[in-house]
Amino acid sequence: MIQTEEFKNQTVLITGASAGIGAAAAHAFGNRGAYVIVHYNSRREAAEQVVAGIAAAGGNGETVQADLGTQAGVRSLVDWLRDRPVDILVNNAGSLVRRTRVLEFTPELMEQVMTLNFTSAFFVAQAVLRGMVERKRGTSINVSSVAARMGGGIGALAYAAAKAAMSAMTKNLAREFGPAGIRVNTVSPGTIDTDFHRNFSTEQMLNNVKAATPLGRLGTSEEAADAIVYLCTDGARFIQGQALEVNGGFLMV
Ligand SMILES: NC(=O)c1ccc[n+]([C@@H]2O[C@H](COP(=O)([O-])OP(=O)(O)OC[C@H]3O[C@@H](n4cnc5c(N)ncnc54)[C@H](OP(=O)(O)O)[C@@H]3O)[C@@H](O)[C@H]2O)c1
After folding, report:
1. Which residue from 38, 39, 95, 195 has its CB within 8 A of the most atoms of ligand 1, so it is best to mutate?
2. Which residues face 183 on adjacent strands?
3. What's the CATH architecture for 11-246?
4. Helices 157-177 & 120-135 angle (0-180, nearest 10)
5. What are the angstrom distances between the C-alpha of 111 and each of 15, 114, 153, 188, 194?
6. What is the separation, in whole angstroms, between the first and last Cα of the chain?
7. Residue 124 burial (CB < 10 Å; 0-12/13-18/19+)?
8. Given the CA of residue 16, which atom of ligand 1 is nearest to it?
9. Burial zone of 110 (CB within 10 Å; 0-12 exposed, 13-18 middle, 19+ buried)
10. pLDDT at 3
11. Domain boundaries in the chain?
């Protein structure tokens, strides 16, 4: 059920919203009255189910497909966004793609990981920022990672570097667009229990994280989504260029 009308008449674009954190954020914004654009890459049915869930709760939204690991895919989303005003952008799509050690890394894989986890977010932000400046309002969240500060696990160098670039981008955009009334912040999840880890982590790795986490467990997609939504609310109106760490105390900075 629609809980509040906090985001009524606002359109939110969430990249990578067919699963995990992005899907939870889509439901959370939908429940607060936003029109939700659910972007996906490979899981069309899952994305359509997210929109159906939002509609069943009394909200509204649509899906859009683009492979943000390729420049052609980024261009297709940027073109699709032309003349579509977006009030809130959540740059959430991301993946390790393949856990690959340094000596095995190829230029093609580096390009794909950086495009998906950083460059695409820049160009999608660029596409929506023009309209935000004209309307003198807008909010953007970049989903980074604890890996941005810690350097990433073995095989995740490019992913961690891309996420660090994402965090730096937040600060630069916050500086340039703050005077236009646009807020930009980072949400930096620790280990959140999603398909991401079913694809890229072993049970041993996850048990080690739990043991090193003061709250003694992994996070949920909803907990990461709550942080994203909070930073877009009026309650966060003086928060600009910051990173909100959502990791149960695993890393305190
Ligand atoms: N889970 C964690 O512990 C954790 C920790 C730190 C940061 N993060 C970050 O949080 C974000 C969400 O992660 P998650 O855990 O929710 O992952 P997830 O459940 O694996 O979902 C990833 C989302 O990204 C989309 N995506 C993947 N590759 C894509 C591509 N080439 N082009 C466009 N979209 C693509 C997926 O779309 P399709 O399924 O439709 O292909 C899906 O919607 C990511 O940026 C991730 O790096 C996650």
Report:
1. 95
2. 139
3. 3-Layer(aba) Sandwich (3.40)
4. 10
5. 19, 5, 19, 23, 25
6. 37
7. buried
8. 43
9. middle
10. 76
11. 11-246
The verdict on the CB of residue 16 being under 6 Å from ligand 1 is yes
- How many residues would you count in the chain? 253
Among 49, 64, 92, which is best to mutate for testing ligand 1, by the most ligand atoms less than 8 A from CB? 92
Amino acid at 237: R
CA distances from 191 to 21, 31, 231, 250 (A): 11, 25, 20, 9
Q: Amino acid identity of 182?
A: I
95-146 pLDDT tens trace:
999 999 999 999 999 999 999 999 999 999 999 999 999 999 999 999 999 9
Q: Which two tokens stand for residue 228?
A: 């994203």
